[in-house]
Amino acid sequence: MSQNSLDMLRRRIEDLDVALLKLLNERAAVSVQIGKLKAQDGLSVYDRLREEAVYGYLLEHNQGPLKTSEINRIFSNIISVSRRLQSTGDHEARGRSADDTATRAVSGNTSVYGILGNPVTQSMSPVMHNAAFRLLGIDAIYLPFEVHDVRGAIVGMRALQIRGASVTHPFKTSIPGLIDEIDATAREVGAVNTLVLEGNSIRGSNTDWAGAVRCIQGLLPIKDNRFVVVGAGGAARAVVFGITREGGKITLVNRTRDKGLPLAEAFGLPFVPLAEIEKVSGECLINTTPVGMYPNIGEMPVPKGVLSRYKAVVDVIYNPLKTRLLKEAEAAGCLVTNGVDMFVYQGAEQFRLWTGKEPPVELMRDVVVDALAQGQSD
Questions:
Q1: For residue 279, what are the domain limits?
Q2: What does the pLDDT read at residue 355?
Q3: Are 354 and 164 in contact (CB under 8 A)?
Q4: Same domain, 161 and 110
Q5: pLDDT number for residue 95
Q6: Please, are residues 249 and 225 in contact by the beta-carbon 8 Å criterion?
Q7: pLDDT score at 313
Q8: Are 81 and 26 in contact (CB under 8 A)?
Q9: What is the chain's mean pLDDT, rounded?
Q10: pLDDT at 102 exceeding the cut of 70
């Protein structure tokens, strides 16, 4: 008798789940329509007062057994999806992509931000930051700048009053000597990935390390675990700083001794040349080099045979979403993660530094993953 009752209750749950799914899809369709109407009226997708009102009327109608915290958690996800769908409706109404939308109403009052690097054509930063600006109704635009003269780029940033910039390969370690000040964290890391213009003064910060920590902790704890970090550039410095700060142990590996050894000595780490990587192992291998990045997707930064020595493998590359390194690591039985979360979290911290506002992290991640998936399916 108890089994029959259990089966009946399970069928009831299944019926309710199907009904919920239908209602959620109806809600999603309405969200898209709301986004189109907001676009026509020039309204921001993000409406803090409206979202607070939603939580308020839900709590008024709650008769249990769900707790307030559980309702807030469930509807936080639903509202996040609703924002994304409203943005989709906004883009459809304007006939533009997420990136093009941000440039539609540029004026003399529009704040300009950008990314300084070479190359920058594959960067997802414009997609991510422009979507965040649009969602929060911020009059700003984020542009890619392929830089051939970094000193000239800094002069231009002041002259053009570019309010902030991301710094990427190959300038993260060379740019600190060209700006007015760097904060304590960037000084410790030895690399700058974020520039903020204040008046005519440019301040450098590093948000890569915070993104790295969030990314790694999603896979395994950092404290007391052994990490083998491959690379010695700006991304490696941020990863090493973050792991050290969180109590992890590191062996640094790099192709060339003249670049890898100074970084290892700066943080008091053992150093091993890449040619001797078979001599080391740990709980987690982290690639911080661009080896395997699009378009060179067939390359690997380490020999395939060493991967079975690790429980987990992290590749800070996010394009492609799954590099050859991660594919081979999965085949060897490792837990794996790509650089999307590191990229999004460091970008979220940049957004906070530039605007003073809470970044819409879920949206930022969604647009990056969608853009990458679309690019890799073309």
A1: 210-338
A2: 97
A3: yes
A4: yes
A5: 44
A6: yes
A7: 98
A8: no
A9: 89
A10: no
What confidence score (pLDDT) does residue 99 get? 46
pLDDT of residue 54: 80
Q: Specify the pLDDT at position 38.
A: 76
Count up the domains in the chain and report the number: 3
Q: Which tokens is 313 given?
A: 């493998």
* CATH number, domain containing residue 126: 3.40.50.10860
The answer on 357 and 293 residing in a single domain is no
Mark whether 137 and 224 lie in a shared domain: no
DSSP characters for 238-302? HHHHHHHHTT-EEEEEES-HHHHHHHHHHTT--EEEGGGGGG---SEEEE-S-TT-TT-TT--SS
Same domain, 316 and 221: yes
Please indicate, yes or no, whether residues 251 and 331 belong to a single structural domain of this protein: yes
Tens of pLDDT, residues 307-339: 999 999 999 999 889 999 999 999 999 999 999
Which active-site residues does the annotation give?
172
CA distance readout (Å), 236 to 189, 240, 328: 9, 6, 22
Per DSSP, the chain holds a count of helices (H) and strands (E) of 13, 12
What local confidence, expressed as pLDDT, does residue 2 receive? Answer: 78
Q: For residue 6, what is the domain's CATH number?
A: 1.20.59.10
Question: Identity (one letter) of the amino acid at 351?
Answer: F
Helix (H) or strand (E) holding 116: strand 111-117
CATH code, 255:
3.40.50.720
Instruction: Tell me the C-alpha distance between 169 and 188, whole Å.
Output: 19
**Mean pLDDT, rounded, for 38-63:** 74
300 and 218 together in one domain: yes
pLDDT, position 133: 93
Residue 266 amino acid letter = A
Cα–Cα distances in Å, from 175 out to 102, 190, 238, 350?
28, 10, 15, 17
Q: Which of 56-70, 234-248, 334-348 has the lowest mean pLDDT?
A: 56-70
At position 140, the amino acid (one-letter code) is A
CA atoms within 13 A on the CB side of 309: 16
Helix H or strand E encompassing 205: strand 201-205
Percentages helix, strand, coil for the chain, rounded to the nearest 5?
A: 55, 15, 30
